[in-house]
Design goal:
The chain is an all-beta fold and 115 residues long. It has a single domain (31-113), classed as C-type lysozyme inhibitor (Lipocalin). The protein contains no helices and ten strands. It has strands at residues 2-8, 22-28, 32-40, 45-52, 57-63, 66-73, 79-83, 86-91, 94-99, 108-113. A hairpin with a 2-residue loop joins strand 7 (79-83) and strand 8 (86-91). The radius of gyration is 14 Å and the shape is globular. It starts with a strand and ends with a strand.
C-alpha cells in the first residue's frame, strides 16, 4: 500500500509568507500522523506533526508562519530529525532544537504542552 502525502512547498522552506504550492510525495506504506505542541525556551510555541512510515520518518515543525520539513535520521535514543544544519530531537515529552554548526548543545529546549 502506498501513502500519498501532500505537503505545502512552504513546509520545505523556512521563509515566512512564502506562497505555498502543493507538493506530493508517494511513499510506500501506511502513514501514522500525530501532532504535538511544544512550549520552548525561546518563548516560541512549536506545533510538530510527526509522519511515520515503514521506511521514512518525517517531522514538520511549525513556529508562527514558518514551517520546516525534517527527515528522520539514526538516533541512539529518542527520535531525531534533520533539516540542513538544524536537528529536532524528541524523547518523551521533551524536545530540543540544535544547530550543528554551533556544536552539540541545544539552541532551544522544549516541553510538550496541550494543544
Amino acid at each position: 500500500m502506498k501513502t500519498c502525502l501532500v505537503l505545502a512547498a512552504a513546509t520545505l522552506a523556512s521563509v515566512a509568507g512564502a506562497k505555498a504550492d502543493p507538493l506530493t510525495l508517494d511513499l510506500p506504506g501506511a502513514a501514522e500522523r500525530r501532532s504535538f505542541a511544544y512550549q520552548c525556551s525561546d518563548d516560541v510555541r512549536r506545533v510538530v506533526e510527526y509522519v511515520n512510515l515503514p521506511d521514512n520518518d518525517l517531522a514538520i515543525v511549525e513556529a508562527g508562519n514558518s514551517r520546516r520539513l525534517f527527515v528522520g535520521v539514526i538516533s541512539a535514543s529518542g527520535a531525531k530529525y534533520a533539516a540542513g544544519s538544524s536537528v529536532w530531537w524528541s524523547k518523551g515529552g521533551e524536545a530540543s532544537l540544535l544547530d550543528v554548526t554551533k556544536g552539540d548543545a541545544p539552541v532551544v529546549e522544549c516541553q510538550q504542552v496541550r494543544k
